[in-house]
Automatic annotation (TrEMBL):
This is Exopolysaccharide production protein ExoY. It comes from the Bacteria. GO terms for molecular function: phosphotransferase activity, for other substituted phosphate groups. Belongs to the bacterial sugar transferase family.
Length: 541
């Protein structure tokens, strides 16, 4: 019997097949409502587990024992094999179990969730004490939070140090305070008012710095006591991966809990191998992982892009252990190993909340202002094609989730299979004159404002596509699948850039991925303004 800790291995079930969000040009029309599901992964078998039908062996009676012939002497047990300790790895460490309470709690203790309320409370404390300077203090609070968020001061870091962020903290506080103080001086000629307000701003700044110091110290204590942990998978099993695993086991203040590594099954591994790279998406779900660190120097760009395209892995924080020891790294570090963020490939945290809030505001105002246009389109649809104003069709949304898109019916109903597999309906005789105008000006898309309010779609994003074409285009162009990392949109950067109708799918995917990787609220505003221009020019289908 080996004295090494035993590890139980089982095949990882294949993940549910997810569709990918795509483009909606050239729609057929027909009703199709489907559902997608997946098989439940098999249960784990723990020590002491007995399968159904298992019978405990009968225990012989004392009489049977006396009449039985003496048993032969057992052979001496072989000496346990000597195992050399692996370099840099604690052999007494065991693989942590999945689904721990710490992993669940950590979802509610993100860095920005702890620091942002403390900052707001510190900025509002002088106002609560003095009951003066309401407008100036509120403006200072809002501006400071925005400046902090834009500077990455609410971003979770592996290496938590208050002193590292003091320069950026003080500089941004000074900029926000100066802007508000200048406006206050221009609006109020009284020197006493300006002096009193400036004194309150200085007190707020001091409280913010003090609150940050306390928050960072609390984060360090919580990590050391393992109150806050993020399950982490390391891609690779080489020397860098071994060093990272050793650091994560030894230093809990990084807040990362090593659950194993994924690598090719052939070849020796000094780390607990829990699966191959193909199993990564399933393992992220089964182990409830929040962080994936790529520590394989031989990981090609194609393999890395495949990792980013997987829906479960895309929701994790992705880091890469960079081998560029002789260059300046602007990322983070774990011990002496520099790591860089691969990028926020999905909108999360404040960005996601900001985009969702802007979507709700835009859709609500648009439905109110465009209600006369919607009524005219509904009446025109009735006149042109008879009863049945709307048509519903299954599309693939974010992370491959299906939903029913709503549009004005601009053509007579067709066969269900044809509506799902026919790419373009240009010059189709079933499209009436009114329907053709609605399609050319994109007025048939207006009911999708309701999809936006429901959360199925966003105002700007990759256009959604039918499941048949999602599978077809994903097989033809690998990076096409990466488009569904964000909510699908009513309009998109590809559409306002002239990529509509029968245009290359690869070009659309490049524009959509560029939008995802360079998202900003101003970029959404520009796409909406260009869309309005296209509608008035009737430059659609």
């Amino acid at each position: 019997m080996s004295n090494q800790p035993a590890m139980w291995h089982r095949p990882v079930p294949a993940d549910d097949r997810d569709g990918n969000a795509t483009d909606a040009q050239g729609d057929g029309e027909g009703d199709d409502e489907g559902s997608r599901g997946g098989s439940r992964p098999p249960a784990y078998q723990f020590p002491g587990y007995q399968p159904a039908g298992y019978q405990t062996p009968a225990v012989p009676s004392p009489a049977d024992r006396r009449s039985a012939p003496p048993a032969p002497a057992p052979a001496p047990a072989p000496a346990p094999a000597k195992h050399e300790p692996r370099a840099g790895l604690d052999t007494t460490a065991v693989l942590p179990y999945a689904g721990s309470r710490a992993s669940t709690r950590t979802r509610w203790l993100r860095a920005w969730m702890m620091t942002a309320p403390v900052d707001v409370l510190a900025l509002l404390t002088p106002l609560l004490v003095t009951q003066q300077y309401w407008r100036g203090t509120l403006a200072m609070t809002v501006l400071t939070v925005i400046v902090f968020a834009s500077g990455g001061l609410y971003r979770a870091r592996r290496h938590v140090s208050f002193l590292d962020e003091v320069p950026s903290l003080c500089g941004r506080l000074l900029a926000a305070a100066s802007a508000v103080a200048i406006v206050a001086a221009m609006r109020h000629e009284s020197a006493e008012y300006v002096f009193g307000f400036t004194r309150g701003v200085a007190a707020s700044a001091g409280l913010v710095i003090l609150g940050r110091a306390v928050t960072r110290e609390f984060a360090i204590v919580a990590r050391k006591r393992r109150w806050v942990e993020h399950n982490t998978i390391i891609v690779g099993s080489g020397p860098t991966a071994v060093e990272l695993a050793r650091l994560l086991r030894r230093y809990p203040q990084y807040g990362l809990r090593f659950v194993g590594c994924v690598d090719t099954p052939d070849g020796p591994s000094a780390l607990p191998l829990i699966g191959s790279l193909d199993d990564l998406d399933s393992l992220v779900r089964l182990r409830e992982c929040d962080v994936v660190i790529v520590a394989d120097a031989n990981c090609s760009e194609t393999s890395l892009m495949e990792i980013l395209a997987r829906p479960r892995t895309a929701e994790c924080d992705l880091w890469a252990a960079t081998p560029l020891w002789g260059s300046r790294s602007h990322g983070d570090h774990i011990g002496a190993v520099p790591v860089v963020s691969i990028g926020d490939i999905t909108l999360s945290g404040p960005q996601s909340a900001l985009k969702r809030a802007s979507d709700i505001a835009f859709a609500s105002v648009a439905l109110l202002l465009l209600s006369p246009v919607l009524l005219i389109c509904a009446v025109a649809t009735l006149i042109d094609g008879g009863p049945g104003i709307f048509f519903y069709q299954e599309r693939i949304g974010r992370h491959g989730r299906p939903f029913n898109i709503i549009k004005f019916r601009s053509m007579r109903p067709v066969d269900e299979h044809e509506s799902q597999t026919n790419w373009s309906i240009a010059n189709d005789r079933r499209v009436g004159p009114i329907g053709r105008i609605m399609r050319r000006t994109s007025l048939d898309e207006l009911p999708q404002l309701w999809n936006i309010l429901r959360g199925d779609m966003s105002v700007v994003g990759p256009r959604p596509e039918r499941p048949y074409f999602v599978e077809k285009f994903s097989a033809e162009y690998p990076q096409y699948a990466m488009r569904h990392r964000v909510p699908v949109g009513l309009t998109g950067l590809a559409q306002v850039s002239g990529l509509r109708g029968d245009t290359p799918i690869s070009d659309r995917a490049r524009f959509d991925n560029f939008y995802i990787e360079n998202w900003s609220l101003w970029l959404d505003v520009k796409v909406v303004l260009r869309t309005v221009t296209e509608v008035f020019r009737a430059g659609g289908r």
